[in-house]
Structure formats: C-alpha cells, structure tokens
Design goal:
three-stranded antiparallel β-sheet; 12 helices; about 280 residues
C-alpha cells in the first residue's frame, strides 16, 4: 500500500494527495521563520512608528531581538539549503536514476526532466492567465482548468525562492560586515542594507496579502485552508482549482463516471440564473 495514496476516503468524502509529511514540515518551518523574521525586522525598518518599540519588546528588545532575528535567519538559510538538496535527491531518485539504470541518460534528457518539473512555469500557465483575464472581463464563460500546480501556486513558490536568495545573501553580509569589508567594497554594505530591508518588506506584503488570501481567505477555503496540515485537498476544491489534474487522477483510479463538473458548475451564466457550461 502506498504511503500517500492519490485519493483518500475520510467520512465518506474523497481527498486528493498534495504534499508529503516532509514537505509539510518544510513549509511549517518556512512559515514560522518568515513570520518571526518579519516581526523582529520590521520594528527596525519602521523604528519611528509608534508600534515599533512595543513589538520589539515582545522579542526581548535591543538585547534579545537581534539574536532571535539572526538565529531565525540562520534556520531559514539551513532550510533553504536542505530544500535544494531535497529537490535534487527526489528528482535524481525518481527520474534520473531510472534512466541511468536503463543506460538512457543524457544531458538533454536531464534538461527535459528539469524543464518538466511540476512547479516550473510553462506555456499552459501563460494561457491560463490569459483565459482567466478573459473570464473576469466576461469575454468568455469558461474558466481555465488548473493542472497539478496552477500559475498562482508557482508564483507562490518562486517569488519567495528568489527573495530568499537576496534576503539571505544580504543578511549574511550585514551580519558579517567586518569580514565582508575585507573582501568587498565598504559601500556595498549600504546596498545590502537597502536590498535586505526592501526585499523583506516586499516578502512580508506578498505573504500577508497574496499568499494568505489565496490559501486561507478566498471564498473557497475561508476561514483557513488545511492542505498545509493534512497534505490532502477536498474533492470540491480539487474540481474548483485543479480540474485538469483532478480528472486525470479520477480516470487513473477508474472513477471517470463519478467526475464532478469543473469549478463546481459555477460560471457567469449559473450565477446569473442561466445554465452552467
């Protein structure tokens, strides 16, 4: 029996596999560390704000808060390195090694494997964004059917991924400024401070507005999405957000006669009292 079946039945309802325990633990550490870094970093960026001293005091003030910030930053960097290693291991074990054992491994095939990873943006994402705009402007009654990972989820992944490179690198240089100025021009510290501070603000806004809205506060998941805890998504939400992948999984399970309509049958026409597509 597979550790993570594609479809799990609980209380008579179907749930679809999304994330392993390893991936969920990574996400929880990421979420905790980013929130802690924001709460200990923003009082410095907005030190003249009335709330800044009170928030900083919650983490021990000037004596303890910097230690909390640096320690959390180191944990986040370790997680980032671990995540890169985890991805490399999974791709090698599941996709590269089988080719190697068959004697079919080549540079081109490895590049194709990397290009076809589920979270790598592709042409369908561009078409889905175009089709969503047409739907929102009432130019079509058909919403795009999301695959395993939608363009929004890929944006959710890659935005903090590259942000972490900028924040992490600049944070390391600021933390070790004496050593850094022996190797780099001293003026670079000013640029690192600006990059670290502004990228952190951008990351905070992205997390609290874009990411939290999509996974917790949108109508379909409010008041809180539970996939990051359980690793499984309800059938209704799969049909709503990942219809193309949902249909594929249902057919592979021999359940094609029980497939739900896309997006719960909700279209412009259905909300206006007409027939759904």
């Amino acid at each position: 029996m597979k550790r993570y079946p594609a479809i799990k039945i609980k209380d008579g309802k179907r749930y679809f596999y999304r994330f392993s325990m390893n991936q969920r633990i990574q996400h929880i550490i990421l979420a905790w560390s980013v929130v802690t870094l924001v709460l200990t970093g923003m009082p410095l960026k907005f030190s003249n704000a009335a709330w800044a001293p009170y928030l900083y005091a919650l983490f021990g003030g000037i004596k303890a808060a910097p230690i909390v910030h640096i320690t959390t930053g180191v944990i986040l960097l370790i997680l980032f390195v671990y995540h890169i290693g985890y991805l490399a291991y999974v791709i090698y074990k599941k996709q590269v090694l089988p080719l190697k054992q068959k004697g079919e491994l080549s540079v081109m095939k490895v590049l194709m494997i990397l290009a076809k990873q589920p979270l790598v943006p592709n042409l369908k994402d561009a078409f889905d964004i175009r089709d969503l705009m047409k739907y929102l402007l009432f130019l079509t009654n058909k919403r795009p059917d999301g695959d395993n990972f939608t363009w929004k989820e890929k944006f959710d992944y890659w935005a903090p991924f590259w942000g972490m490179v900028i924040i992490g690198l600049s944070g390391l240089i600021i933390w070790n400024k004496e050593l850094a100025t022996h190797l780099l021009p001293g003026g670079l510290l000013n640029f690192m401070l600006i990059a670290h501070s502004d990228e952190a603000l951008l990351a905070a806004l992205f997390l609290f507005i874009w990411h939290w809205y999509n996974v917790h506060f949108s109508i379909s998941v409010f008041p809180m999405g539970t996939v990051f805890l359980t690793g499984y998504m309800s059938e209704e939400l799969m049909a709503e957000e990942h219809y193309e992948h949902y249909v594929k999984v249902m057919k592979e399970a021999g359940l094609e006669h029980e497939i739900l309509p896309p997006h719960g049958g909700h279209t412009h026409e259905s909300t206006e009292g007409g027939h759904s597509a």
